[in-house]
Amino acid sequence: MTTVSMMLLYVFDCSDKEDTTFQVDNKGDFKSSLMVDVKGMLSLYEAAHVRFHGEDVLEKALIFTTTNLKSMMKSSTFTCSPIGRQVQHSLEQPFHKGIPRLEARRFISLYQENDATWNDIVRKLAKLDFKLVQALHKQELCDISRWWKKLNFALKLPFARDRLVECYFWIVGTYYEPSYALARLFLTKVIALTSVVDDIYDAYGTIDELKLFTDAFERWDSSCVNQLPGYMKVCYQTILDEYDEMDAVMNKEECSYHVHYAKEAFEQRRGHVASAVECFMREYGASKQEACNEINKMVEEAWKDVNEGCLARSTVIPRPLLMAILNLTRMVLVVYKYEEDAYTHSDTRMKENVTILFIDPIDP
């Protein structure tokens, strides 16, 4: 039995003690001899991120594999190798917590030249799939860009962040499949307009103006437009018009629950509040680093809830909707990791991700 098989047997079939105990020492820890199989170590590391609450073996596996993989990265020779680059990326972005489309693109690039076991037929199919879907996404982005330019917010609302491409990237990360083209169109509009509303609340509007703006949304009445300042009129009327357009489309044809979700999102707004880190620091008298560490622990516990909710067989929630929720969770992690807001500061990691998905062609 290979080292990979032994480790996976230990993780996923712990009920058979006679077959698994040889992988741990007398203290119940993983044996250091398992370190010789780097691919097996990496596979176990990735599998450990799909753990539920109470899965102590996977908790130990994550600590064990993380510690040893980081140790391997201290070798410059290993770091420059194909498997070393894969380990480095996985330590920064575990596959389960990554954006599926983005991870697929990176996987193709990493393996097509460096893995002798790569199946040529699978390689061609993977590249063809990516090219076809990328072409569809490019066309959608062109269409939504024309809509955005027609609104002329850059001139009418110059204080607002111009992040249409980033908004579309966010929605593609939630569900990229061709069948959700209409939902992507609607939700990109929703998130782009919501971003403008967010900037009005957070960065531009006065208290008195924001009270009027809030009241207008609560009443959801076109007659409220005349009570708003000029820049708020532009934003509010645009939202009303887009909502009516989506409603008309949905009345003409049967739409998925994703599209209905896009419509309902127009009725929600986000106020400006202190960040979770700031709240934790104030409540517990903690330093910023202590607050971040504790919140990261909460995030890991929340991921276990997400895993269990998405993988539980007893759920009555449609699988496509569960996957959209899971992918949206992944998007939040990718966009806001490394203590940076890649949405606001889009010339950093966000630019690289957008380029990979929508601009760079895949090698033939």
From TrEMBL:
Residues 25-91 form the Terpene synthase N-terminal domain. The keyword Chaperone does not apply. The lineage of its organism: Eukaryota, Viridiplantae, Streptophyta, Embryophyta, Tracheophyta. Keywords: Lyase, Magnesium, Metal-binding. Pfam families: Terpene_synth, Terpene_synth_C. This is (+)-delta-cadinene synthase. It comes from the Eukaryota. GO terms for biological process: diterpenoid biosynthetic process. It comes from Stephania japonica. The keyword Membrane does not apply. CDD domains: Terpene_cyclase_plant_C1. One of its GO terms (molecular function) is terpene synthase activity. Residues 149-267 form the Terpene synthase metal-binding domain.
